[in-house]
Amino acid sequence: MSAMARAPSSSGAVTDPIRVMVVDDSVVIRGLLGRWLDEDPNLAVVASHRNGRLAVDDVLRSNPDVVILDIEMPDMDGLTALPLLIEKKRNLVVVVASTLTRRNAEISLKALSLGAADYVPKPESNSGVTTSTEFRRELIEKVTHLGQRARKRGLPGQAPAGRPMPRPQPGAPAPAAHSALRASRPGSFTIRAYSSVRPRILTIGSSTGGPQALNALFGEIGSAIGMVPVVLTQHMPPTFTAILAEHITKAAGRPASEGRDGEAIQPGHIYVAPGGKHMLLAKNGGDVVIRLSDAPPVNFCKPAVDPLFKSVAEIYGTATLAVVLTGMGSDGAEGVRRIGEIGGSAIAQDEETSVVWGMPGAAAHTGMCSDVLPLNEIGRKVSKILLGGRP
Asked: In terms of Cα–Cα distance, which of 85, 98, 90, 97 is closest to 55?
């Protein structure tokens, strides 16, 4: 299917599809991804290349909205090509595709720090890619959402990236800027008062854009979390979460590690839900311990945020402080609802500073958040609350 504009379909497909470039050294993978993408009326493959150098040379001519970029390629690999692609085309979305080796996981997280929007874990063999419905679903979902977000940010009259959005007042509708940006989410959200109880735990949920947001957040709150444990779920596969914990340790100046089943949580330590397992908290005598679950995915995610948030709320009640950062989907919203019902507090990242305002947007629209803030304000607010200051 060509990259020419298409008429809207009965399912609401866009007239001008999102333009995608595929960069992978395997001709089989390029062909397979190209077919998958072109089967979606909202997407169109405009270029396909076997290495980074060809992609860099062609990016201005083919003018893609999104590049799917392999890591290991001859002549020029993905990590080398990434900054060159972004330098050539402003607002280009790059999604890194890599297999689940530790080396590739480290490179993928490095790519996020260099400007990649997200990553997709790729099965190790061509046959694995061909048969993986999960890989196909995640790839299409991320290309679609990130491509739409990039186009929305490029519209005339939009606020520049990083500008803090006006904060909603308690009981008031969202500001007009928020309403304009979330045309697909009718209605408005309200905020509620913070709990008057000083938090005894901080729990965090994040997904797309989360590693970058987590590094920024922990860089600000490291000195404030000495008196409370931190438990977080970032949507990530195995191997990636262990490396994420290492990055968080550096950013926070506090120990961070994947949670272990039966481990008693301690103040000043950060526990990351391991990829492929749900992480929950439970009481065990006088201790609060981690429980890992192999239950089915929740909201298509494993680990998922909702099980963690709900378990935290049941133990800590009004002494719960939750933060929902950037991410696709609505995971975390039901957990935030429970935290609010039980009297705890929750903060959602605002739309303008989110890579995707799915999860924080869904949380905000529960009416149970106490603030909807730009990322660069969340750390200061969390630190103040944890140190006993008035919100």
From this structure: 85
Measured CA distances, 391 to 197, 381, 382, 387 (Å): 11, 7, 8, 10
Q: Three-state DSSP class for 83?
A: helix
Taking residues 40-67, report their average pLDDT: 97
For residue 145, indicate whether it is catalytic: no
Active-site annotation holder among 65, 331, 350, 371: 331
Q: How far apart are CA 196 and CA 345, in angstroms?
A: 9
What span, in angstroms and rounded, lies between the C-alpha atoms of 73 and 214? Answer: 29
Q: What is the DSSP letter of 273?
A: P
Exactly one of 98, 108, 195, 207 is catalytic; name it: 207
Decide if 98 contacts 119 (C-beta within 8 A): yes
pLDDT exceeds cutoff 50 at 157: no
Helix, strand or coil for residue 114?
coil
Catalytic site includes residue 62: no
pLDDT above 80: residue 131? no
Question: Quick check: 116 and 95 in contact, CB under 8 A?
Answer: yes
In which residue are the tokens 């979305």 written? 93
Q: Where are the beta strands (DSSP E) in the chain?
A: 18-23, 43-49, 66-70, 93-98, 118-121, 201-206, 230-234, 256-258, 270-272, 278-284, 287-293, 320-324, 345-349, 371-373
Contact 375, 213 (CB under 8 A): yes
Gap between the Cα atoms of 277 and 379, Å rounded: 27
Look at residue 100 and give its three-state secondary structure.
coil
Identified catalytic residue from 145, 235, 269, 278 = 235
Annotated catalytic residue 207 = yes
Q: Which domains does the chain have, with CATH numbers?
A: 18-153 (3.40.50.2300), 191-386 (3.40.50.180)
- Per-residue pLDDT tens for 219-239? 999 999 999 999 999 999 999
**Whole-number Å distance between alpha carbons of 291 and 288:** 10
Model's pTM, two decimal places?
A: 0.85
